[in-house]
Structure formats: C-alpha cells, structure tokens
Amino acid sequence: MSSEAAIQVRGLSKAFPIYSKPHHRLLQMISPGPKDRWYREFRALRNIDLNISRGETVGIVGRNGSGKSTLLQLICGTLTPSAGEIQVNGRIAALLELGAGFNPEFTGRENVFLNATVLGLKHAEIVEKFDEIAAFADIGDFIDQPVKSYSSGMYVRLAFAVAINVSPEILVVDEALSVGDEGFQRKCFARIDAIRDSGATVLFVSHSASTVVDLCDRAILLDRGELLAQGTPKYVVSRYQKLLYAPTDRVAQIREEIRESSAEAAGASRRLSSHAEPGVVSASDSPSVAPREEESQAYWEEGMVSSSTVVYENRGAVIEDPHLQTLDGNKVNVLVPGGTYVYAYKVRLERALVNVRCGMMIRSITGIEVGGAATSTPQGGVPVVEAGKMLNVRFRFRCLLTPGSYFLSAGVLATLGEGEEYIDRQIDVAMFRVMPAADRLATGFVDLDVVPQLSVAP
Ligand SMILES: Nc1ncnc2c1ncn2[C@@H]1O[C@H](COP(=O)(O)OP(=O)(O)OP(=O)(O)O)[C@@H](O)[C@H]1O
Ligand SMILES: [Mg+2]
Predict the structure, then answer these.
(1) Mean predicted confidence (pLDDT) in 217-229
(2) What is the per-residue pLDDT for 38?
(3) How many separate domains does the chain show?
(4) Residue 41 is part of a domain; what is its CATH number?
(5) What is the pLDDT confidence band of residue 178, given thresholds at 50, 70 and 90?
C-alpha cells in the first residue's frame, strides 16, 4: 500500500447469513458438513474498491440498508469480510452505532479508560487527557454512573469525546452525531474540522447533504451494497438525491444512469491522471470529469413528491397545480441558490367570493416557517370574484435559502360571514431542493449575503 493511502479496500464483499426460522441457526451450528446449509446469504456489500488518501475527508451517502455501516465496521475491524482485502494505515478512532465500544455495566470514567486503551493510549496519557474528555462530554456527575443509565445523547457525548480527544489518525463516524443536540453537534463539527486540519483522515456517514458538501473533499454513494458513484460531494449528493426521490418504477433506470456516468467519469479520470487507480476518481481530478451540467442551472427532477401534504376541506375554491418555475416558465424543483423563481398556482372558484387574497409559505423539513407572503393585506383583497372564474397566482422570489429540502404551502382567503377565512388550504403540497453550493459560508435557512471580515489586530 502506498504510504499516502490511509485506507485501501479491494474487492470487498460481505454476506450475512439469513435464517428463515430461529432454530435454523442452531441446526447450522450443529450441522455436520459444509453441504448442509440452513441459511441463505444476504450480500450487504458487493465487490467494493476504494482508496482513501491520508488527510482526505470522505462522506458516505446512501439509502437505509445500502451497506454504509457495514462498510465502516469492516474498515474498523468489528466485522470480518466475506471476500476481499482491507488495509488501514494509521490509528483509527471510531464512533459507530450506539452501543458499540462501551461496556454498559462500567461507569463513564471506566469506559473512557477502557475505550482509550483500545484506541492505543497508555494509562498515563489517558490520565492526562481525562479532564479534557470529561469537559468535552459535559455530562456532569453522570461520568461516575454506569453507562447503562445514560440517555442516548449522553452516551454519544461521551463516546465522541473519547474518539476525538485521542488524536486519531483516522476518524470514522457513523451518523452518531445526529443523536446529540444541536449545540453539541456544532462543537463536534468544529472538532472534526480541527482533526482534519491536523492532517487526519476522516470518514463519515451522513444523511445530510449539506453536511457532506460542507465538510467533505469527496463523497461516495452506496446503493444495495454496490459503490454506485464517487466524486466531488456535490456530484455524489445530487445523484444520491435523484435516487432517493425517484418514483419506484424509475429507480432501476436512474441507478443504471448513475452507474454509467460514474464509469465514464472514472474512465476520463484515468485518461487525465496517470496515477489514478482503476475505477477511482481522485478528489483532485473529479471536478473536471464528472458530468454536471445541470448543477449550474435549475431543473426538474421527476418523482420529488412531498409525503407530508395536508389538504384541508375546501369551501368553494380549489387550489390547482402549485409548482415552481423559472422566469421563462420552465417547471423546476431543484433550484440554484440566489436564482429568481416564481411560485405559481391556479384557483378555481366554485362560488362567488369577496375580498379574495392568496398566500404562500415555505417550510423546512422540520416544519419551521421559513418565509411566506400574501397577495395583499387583509383589507386589500380582490373585492368580488364570480363563481366559475379562475385565478392565476404568482409569487416571484429570490431563492435566498441555504441548500436543503423545503416544502411549499398555498392558501386562498376570503371574507365569509364575520371575518376572513381559508377557502382552500394545502400544506406541504410540493417540495423542492436548493442545490448545495461549494464554499458556502451562510448557515441556518437564509443566506443573508453577509460579508464576513476577520483580521488579526496589530
Ligand atoms: N448482522 C446482520 N445480519 C443480517 N443482515 C445484516 C446484518 N447487518 C446488516 N445487515 C443487512 O445489511 C444491509 C446493510 O446494512 P447497513 O447497516 O450497512 O446499512 P446502512 O447503509 O448503514 O443503513 P442505515 O442508513 O439504515 O444506517 C441491510 O439490508 C441490513 O439488513
Ligand atoms: Mg447505518
């Protein structure tokens, strides 16, 4: 293995035995010859080739069950491969799924010592680092309680505090971070940054597209145990999302398209770079070879459907065809940050209405109202609209949202009896995504176009 490689994986496969009845496991254990098989094999990983250089930060994305955790466990040595080779060059600290690594009967303090010893630290070194670890975990007196009494958040805090305070050469994180609260997550990301800056290799699994784009030099996409694509985080994340939101009947075709374009990209990278390993797009040359025309402009991605839609009973008007479009009228649902778009829908009136106005709202995945607008003030609606008429509603807006997925709502209001009421209301009726942007500094939901300055005082 070259001295530059931190992790090298060749032809790696992992099959798990699946027993259709619990007692088959027992029968297998006592079965006399290799011909008696009481199980069938489930191939969680198939023939994976992967090279990770020293100092690289690599994100692994993929749908649930695609083999991400299995790959990390094989790399960390907590699982053994069914076929293939793994070579690891450097001291690995891993944060795998909850439950791995700690003994539940021991206290937090005892587990820190146990865990740090496994990670290769000497007793004196652990004593020296203990206060720092405990301070980072910040779980107070619980440090002297058995770990089995911890909440999942506390558990992750302690596990993470150990993993990142032992100065690992390779840090492997399996989504454990999503358990911690937001403050702790930020602290962890800051520490991961520092670990990375010190030259360590970081490998982590995340379902968050923006985290992968923000943090990683490179990303890989696993799908049903296959390494379907690798390249720049932007390229890989866009393929992953395409697969994630694909309608069931198109998944196979999209998978094939991704596979083909990645093979092309790998071929091009081989032609460009004499040291590139077969099938491997290295971080430095992938940007120029991965096909990414659509990443510079908004586009329509089939099958991106909101699964949280709530349609209220209408009272004489119906909202139809809510969608986003470009200024020249093309329907889109993947937007470029900073671009100008129109949120448009129609309203069919089944009865005459007075003081009619319409509204829109954009919500985050967690339901936070990020921004909305109405066509007029409560007093300024269209005075009278006859039954049978159609309203065209358009909201032009600049996409100041940070990358991520968002949901659109629509509402029609009119004066009924005493006051203003919803005549039709559809929540989360459509969804869209804002593309990841490289080198983005804005955090939160809205890009305030902040001009940051930092200078060192003389
Ligand atoms: N010990 C096991 N025995 C049998 N099957 C297993 C075992 N561990 C994992 N699998 C199967 O292997 C596949 C890959 O699992 P893995 O945990 O690696 O997925 P993942 O990509 O990490 O998913 P998630 O996003 O849900 O964490 C799954 O179908 C899972 O059911
Ligand atoms: Mg997993």
Answers:
(1) 94
(2) 76
(3) 2
(4) 3.40.50.300
(5) low
Sign, CA dihedral 112-113-114-119, equals: positive
Q: Do both 287 and 328 map to the same domain?
A: no
Residue nearest (by alpha carbon) to ligand 1 atom 1: 16
- Residues with CB under 6 Å of ligand 1 are 16, 42, 44, 62, 64-70
Atom of ligand 1 nearest to the CA of 205: 22
pLDDT higher than 70, residue 242: yes
Q: So what's the pLDDT on residue 278?
A: 32
**Max Cα separation, the chain?**
87
Measured in Å, residue 356 CA sits from the centre of ligand 1 at: 53
Q: Write down the pTM of the prediction.
A: 0.65
Ligand nearest to the CA of 16: 1
Read off the pLDDT of each residue in 124-142 and give the average, rounded to a whole number. Answer: 92
List, as ranges, residues with CB under 5 A of the ion ligand 2: 69
221 CA distance to ligand 2 middle (Å): 13
**Ligand 2 geometric centre to CA of 64 (Å):** 7
Burial 287-311, CB ≥16 within 10 A → b, else e:
eebbebeebeebbbbebbebeeeee
Given 271, 296, 321, the domain boundary residue is: 296
Ligand 1, atom 30, lies closest to the CA of: 65
> If you ran DSSP here, which 8-state letter would residue 146 be given?
B
Q: In which order are the strands placed within the sheet that holds 201-205?
A: 92-95, 170-174, 201-205, 57-62, 218-223, 226-231
Q: Are both 272 and 354 inside the same structural domain?
A: no
Q: In this structure, is residue 337 part of a structural domain? A: yes
Q: In this model, does residue 158 exceed pLDDT 50?
A: yes
pLDDT class of 283 with cuts at 50, 70, 90: very low
Over 80: is that where the pLDDT of 197 sits?
yes
- The residue to mutate among 68, 177, 178, having the most atoms of ligand 1 within 8 angstroms of its beta carbon, is 68
